[in-house]
Amino acid sequence: MSHPPEIFDIRPSAGPPIYRQLIDQARALIAGGRLKPGDYLPGVRRVAKYADVNPMTVSKAYAQLESDGVVERVPGQGMQVCAPRTTGSLAQRRAQFRAAAQPAFHHAHQLGLSPDDIRRVLDDLLKEYQP
Fold first, then answer.
1. H or E stretch covering 81
2. What is the structure's pLDDT at 126?
3. Is the model's pTM score more than 0.90?
4. Cα separation of 84 and 129, whole Å?
């Protein structure tokens, strides 16, 4: 069963493109445990109608999530959240994480956060994601 489209909080005037908001929010919902492996994303048409956006915008976001291995298309069912991937060596996965984290560190620098401030935020995040 898929989640309702209200799981996403789309804000057309927020800055990032809508498809990017969908991608980022889906990833955050998965990381936070609100979407679990085996769950289905709400249907493209439902999200488009709810957010009052073109269905192609939602399709673009879902296609990117599929390409990234976050979800998989199940014929007749929709887009299903995949189990976390552990493909590649530890060094490769660390490099992927570093590339994903680098913009956040750049943003922290722009906000004037000290290394200790950043460590506190990371420690808080780690506590949130530990089983």
1. strand 78-81
2. 86
3. no
4. 14
